[in-house]
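Batch job 17 of 40 flagged for manual review because the log was empty.
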Amino acid sequence: MGPAKKSQKLKRLVAVQRHMEKMAELDLADTSRQRQEISAGLDRVIEALGSMDPVHRLFSQSYAERFSRLSNDDRRMADVQRVQENVVLRQRTKAERLEEKMLEARDHEDREAEDNALQDLIDLTFATPASSKVQE
């Protein structure tokens, strides 16, 4: 088996890069899901804090602490989400650049193959009359 063409190598790199992009997107989706859960928890705590039910009033300090923890978690997850969004963007950009390079390499290889085929045809065209003259 001969050496792999540049476009084939780049095609494999594009596949790996797209896989890395997909993994980053899955991480981002997981973080978004966690933020939604935190948001739902914040809504429940706010509802409990605003409730006139005497049972909820007994736990108001606990609710306030819970609200504070959830707020901190939400801020932390927002930072994580921003980082992950940047990672997804970088991975996607890398994949697109690799794909462009792969297409350029493929075009170059196709042009080279066409040039070689044309050169072979020219060689055959000029070689045939010369060989028939020699035989005469």
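Reviewer: the log was empty due to a logging misconfiguration, but the result itself is present. Helices lie at 6-50, 54-58, 60-135. Unflagging and moving on to job 18.
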